[in-house]
Amino acid sequence: MAVEHVRVEADGGSRGNPGPAGFGAAVTDLATGEVLAERSEFIGVETNNVAEYRGLIAGLEAARDLGARRVSVFMDSKLVVEHMKGAWQVKNEGLRPLARSASELRRHFDEVTFQWIPREQNGHADRLANEAMDRAAGKTIKPPRTERAEPAGSSATKPWGPPTTTPTRLLLVRHGSTAHSAEGRFSGQNDLELDKAGRAQAAALAKRALSLGDIAAVVSSPVLRTQQTAQAIADALGTSVVTNKDFAEVNFGEWDGLTFAEVREQYPTLMKEWFASPTVAPPGGESMEAMGRRVRRGRDAVISTYPDQRVIVVTHVSPIKSLVRAVLDAPASSLYRMHLDTGSLSIVDYFADGGASLRLFNDTSHLAN
Prior knowledge:
Blueprint (H helix, E strand, L loop, with lengths): L4 E10 L4 E11 L5 E12 L1 H18 L4 E6 L2 H8 L10 H11 L4 E6 L6 H14 L31 E7 L4 H5 L12 H14 L7 E4 L3 H14 L3 E3 L16 H7 L1 H9 L11 H18 L4 E6 L1 H12 L16 E6 L5 E8 L6
Helix pairs in contact: 1-3, 6-7, 8-9, 10-11
């Protein structure tokens, strides 16, 4: 049976650089920590970087063969991780075909994320790579101890222990209210302004922001109501707004501006299908699954740009729910079981080892003042 979300740990090494080289990759179920696949191979005389890329490719191939839809890749190669994130160019001619192969494999998945981890946290893949090289050298391989990764949803590798690293903290702000908010209408990527209550909520959020610690940046969806909310916060902090289109609300297409009752009356069958599956989109619009992919891409860009810092992200109800769902590794139906008020604050911590922790959800205490 196919598994939804897997963790890929990959590594490669060369004894001489270039020298005798091998790679290793381990694929585990992120929900249970069960090891699903191991890949390793001796590849002759190569460089460390080639071996690391070969490990990544083997790990992605194994995840593809398992039918995974989402993949979280962890490697101790900063070079490969930054190449895959698009932060660094692939300048080495010998690595370009390998980078292309890895990029082509990404197309088989709904989501692939990359995270650098320290070498000591990549022991499983490192062991597999070294065993491949040892076998080629005729050495005896000792039986490994049982490997088991931590399940998804654990905030860091020891869920109930104190954090050992400084997280990247995303302070997720839902924009202030608009005319659609009060009337309970679908409101996607339109350019409605904040109403009077929304402007008051933005002012309250700006005041709250002053008590949230050192803020590295204020990032906002490009939609007008989020821009107005973000600008009020940025003005209070003495900074500017960074716009990221990936944090825009889901595109509701023909449903935009309609109430739930109106959509149910005009599109009764489609609305049932929409609630039943995140892959269903409104006419001319975007599915929740498609929105979730781009929002996670925006999240990864913020974490990569502002590691170990605090960032205010001003966005919408659906993107925030999508991020919370990912943190909790919750089912798609959870998107319709969360309530988020306009002007609310939610907080998520993302750790360097791939763990995440929901710290706060739908806090509106600042609106009571």
